[in-house]
């Protein structure tokens, strides 16, 4: 049976009352459903604990959008993995393209973050993906391979298997223009093959999500692609009805 994870990345959206309403609506929306897919929501840091209080007891998992790699110390403004583990968060997004672009998060830093997250038994959602320029210049697959190899450097096969990979072509994020199903299928099979070469057949169990303008209208055709194990959703995860509709589509595919 295909494993599917539907993840919502709320980014820097929702003040507390909005986060409460949104999470309550999602909990209500799945009540009584025999859930066959995993659901993850990733609110901003300050809303993690209040959202946890709402979703606890439901099958919805809680994730953070970023972390520091050190356990504690003089890193003003940062949030550590032990702090997030204590919320508790089950997942942490690492290497989102907005972190890479606006906060200069280079491969080496992301590799340290992945190790810190795995060390705490939290599941990293590791984002990779090329720019439009990379794709137009024919470098998309070189970039994807580089990001995977550098990000996963010196991590044991056993730990790599626990990582959720999110393929997010940067040109498709927040643009309303998702990659085509052919582009997604090609990239996901390329990623799966790299992982198979890295860790062997266990890579078949790894979840590879697609992210980039997923919404209620395109989710079915994307989630149907064989090597797609779910979606990382930005804008559309902020509307409870749309997010629930994507969950419903996913439910019908497993
Ligand atoms: C994202 O933030 O990871 C994302 C894919 O955003 P959107 O769904 O809005 O394109």
Walk me through the structure.
It is a single chain. The protein is an alpha/beta fold and 254 residues long. It contains 11 helices and 8 strands. It has helices at residues 16-30, 48-55, 81-85, 97-102, 107-119, 132-136, 140-151, 157-160, 181-199, 219-223, 240-251; strands spanning 5-9, 38-42, 61-64, 91-94, 123-128, 164-167, 208-211, 230-233. It has an 8-stranded parallel barrel, surrounded by 5 helices. α1 packs parallel to α2, α1 (16-30) runs parallel beside α11 (240-251) and α7 packs parallel to α9. The longest helix is centred in the C-terminal third of the chain and has 19 residues, at 181-199. The structure holds phosphoenolpyruvate. The site of phosphoenolpyruvate (PEP) has 14 residues, from β8.
Topology diagram in text:
Layout (H helix, E strand, L loop, with lengths): L4 E5 L6 H15 L7 E5 L5 H8 L5 E4 L16 H5 L5 E4 L2 H6 L4 H13 L3 E6 L3 H5 L3 H12 L5 H4 L3 E4 L13 H19 L8 E4 L7 H5 L6 E4 L6 H12 L3
Parallel strand pairs: 1-2, 1-8, 2-3, 3-4, 4-5, 5-6, 6-7, 7-8
């Amino acid at each position: 049976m295909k494993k599917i994870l539907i993840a919502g990345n709320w980014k820097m959206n929702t003040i507390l009352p909005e986060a409460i309403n949104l999470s309550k609506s999602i909990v209500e929306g799945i009540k009584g459903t025999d859930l066959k897919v995993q659901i993850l929501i990733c609110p901003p840091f300050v809303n993690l604990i209040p959202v946890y209080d709402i979703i606890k007891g439901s099958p919805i998992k809680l994730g953070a959008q970023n972390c520091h790699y050190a356990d504690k110390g003089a890193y003003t403004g940062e949030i550590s993995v032990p702090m997030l583990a204590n919320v508790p968060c089950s997942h942490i997004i690492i290497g989102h393209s907005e972190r890479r672009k606006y906060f200069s998060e280079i491969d080496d830093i992301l590799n340290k973050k992945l190790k810190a997250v795995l060390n705490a038994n939290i599941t990293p959602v590791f984002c990779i993906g090329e720019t439009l320029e990379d794709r137009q210049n024919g470098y998309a697959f070189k970039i994807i391979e580089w990001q995977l190899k550098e990000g996963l450097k010196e991590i044991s096969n056993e730990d790599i298997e626990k990582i959720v990979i999110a393929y997010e072509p940067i040109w498709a994020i927040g643009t309303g223009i998702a990659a085509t199903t052919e582009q997604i299928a090609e990239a996901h099979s390329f990623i799966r093959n790299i992982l198979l070469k890295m860790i062997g057949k266990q890579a078949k169990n790894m979840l590879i999500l697609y992210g980039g303008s997923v919404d209620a209208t395109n989710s079915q055709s994307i989630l149907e692609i064989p090597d797609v194990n779910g979606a990382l959703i930005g804008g559309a995860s902020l509307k409870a009805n749309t997010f629930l509709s994507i969950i419903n589509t996913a439910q019908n595919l497993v």
